[in-house]
Amino acid sequence: MLGKSTHAPTPTHVPVHLIFNATQRSCLIEATWKSVPLIYNSASPVMSYWARQHSSCKRQTQVVPGWHPCSICIPRSKWVLSRKHRADRPFHTTAVGHRLVSFLLADIGEGIKEVVIKEWFVSEGDTVAQFDSICEVQSDKASVTITSRYDGVIRKLFYDVDDTAFVGKPLVDIEVSKEDDSVGAEVQEGEAISVGRPVEGAVIEPGNFTLPTGKILTTPAVRRIAMEYKIDLYDVQGTGKDGRILKEDLLQYIERKKSGVKAPVSSTPTSPTVATRQTAAPTPALQAPPTLPPSIPVFLGEDKDETITGFQKAMVRSMTHAMKIPHFGYCDEIDMTILVNMRKELKAMAQAHGVRFSYMPVFIKAASIALSHFPVLNSSVDEKCENIKYKASHNIGVAMDTSEGLIVPNVKGVQRLTLLEVAAELNRLQELGSRGALKTQDITGGTFTLSNIGSIGGTYAKAVILPPEVAIGAIGKIQALPRFDAAGNVTKAHIMQVSWSADHRIIDGATMARFSNLWKSFLENPATMIMHLK
Ligand code: CO6
């Protein structure tokens, strides 16, 4: 039963909301006074307060079936100050009409247990709206923007910049209005949500669906509708001031999607194939390759200690774990001469569709076709290596040199994509990677990896498997080298080396060699790939 306090707040009384469970005859008895969390100092009088106040309470809403919020005043002498936050109790009470929600750092996937706080976008006392950015955190694999789930006032930040925050632990306390119906019964924990693009085929849990914010100008109401319809606002063209997405824009977009009509988003000619699959792999504008800063010599003068954090810390963990896998290597060289010539044409064609086309899309697509012949290479094993899971989707990871270090985003469902779509998705990932904006969805769920070290230099490499995957390929630089042709004449050939690493517990050398031969045959005779292209 919810009612207004019959007591006016006095210096000796603290107005609170209690949540009673009439059946269990118990209640939550935490409150906040002047932003300081309090804990009730006495157990037994609670029910008598409840009894006294019960008759004056007017029932309005139920927070949880069987539980009823109720406002009363309790003498301050009955409370003790509690500076230590109680992480296991997400709901607290504050001044009448408000309550404090502990906003927990959500699980951001791939077993990530901790992140480093990179930047706060809010301070204590700031008012936030739903989906406003709260902070940027860095996991071992990507930067993630955490957004608010509520409208309210930030009451407490639990970490400083560069602190390590733990998944499932409070990130901030937000004071919300008791009328805020978004703090419904189903939201027992104020889990923070992260931004990103939903992955096709992924199970999207209510409250865990992620939405892009930050650069997108719109209102919480529009974001809420987008969330309900699982729409990525990056796909919606805003017609408001400065590109703000208006409610009408979103509703029109939903209508168009329902009727199958595509939005007029770009004046760039788009491939019919790409257009029909636009939701799976939108074609970004032509992007320049990320430029690396020139290497500058560093003279320290004296020794310098530095704590390993963020990506590096994660690399320590993941590589230590990875090196427990018994690796074996297999290398070969590939004559890329035909493909080098063909790529010139493909590049020009892709460019007409606004897509930058390097060799990578061909490497990736050829790998996917070869994987369908050797599914064990697209599998994963459990921790104890007792079970193999053959993965239906070819989510091919690409080791990427980004502003944040080496990250391995993956192109999802390559088996369903055309070469142009693979290229478009790779462009998108590269563009995000170059500005450190890859999202959790982009970097999770990989099933097989290719590392093109040749775009930097080098020939052979010993790549480390990314668990739970079981194989990885390192690709060397394409070089013009002398080789013998079929007639025994020395000719100029474009040669590229590949170095495979595989988990020797479940893969043998012959399987790896056969897979490599097939992949090689597609690259050496690209025409043979045509039969398998989708
Ligand atoms: N040879 C020759 N030329 C190449 C090659 C090779 N292997 N790869 C790319 N290129 C060309 C490419 O075609 C582009 O040329 P144009 O199209 O004519 O402009 C140009 O180099 C730049 O390509 P870019 O790197 O922008 O794009 P690409 O799609 O080939 O690669 C990428 C995408 C994400 C792989 C790349 O940008 C990147 O980050 N590469 C570095 C990956 C890396 O750091 N790997 C090391 C991981 S650690 O493997 C490891 C075992 C250890 C050593």
* Proportion of residues in β-strands: 25-35%
What ligands does this structure carry?
Answer: isobutyryl-coenzyme A
- Poorly predicted residue ranges: 1-94, 181-214, 261-293
Structural class: alpha+beta
Helix fraction? Answer: 10-25%
Number of helical segments with 4 or more residues: 11
Between the first and last Cα atoms, what is the distance in angstroms? 61 Å
Give the biggest beta sheet. 7 strands, mixed
Globally, the shape reads: globular
Radius of gyration: 28 Å
What is the total tally of β strands?
A: 28
Secondary structure layout:
Elements: E1 13-21, E2 26-28, E3 30-33, E4 36-40, H1 45-54, E5 67-75, E6 79-81, E7 91-93, E8 98-104, E9 114-120, E10 127-128, E11 133-138, E12 143-147, E13 152-157, E14 164-166, E15 170-177, E16 190-191, E17 193-194, H2 220-228, H3 247-259, H4 272-276, H5 310-322, E18 327-335, H6 337-352, H7 360-371, E19 379-381, E20 388-390, E21 396-398, E22 400-402, E23 405-407, E24 410-411, H8 419-434, H9 440-443, E25 448-452, E26 471-475, E27 479-484, E28 490-503, H10 509-524, H11 527-530
Parallel strand pairs: 8-16, 21-25, 25-26
Antiparallel strand pairs: 1-2, 1-5, 3-4, 4-6, 7-8, 8-15, 9-11, 9-14, 10-13, 11-12, 12-17, 13-15, 18-28, 19-20, 21-24, 22-23, 26-28, 27-28
Bound molecules: isobutyryl-coenzyme A (CO6).
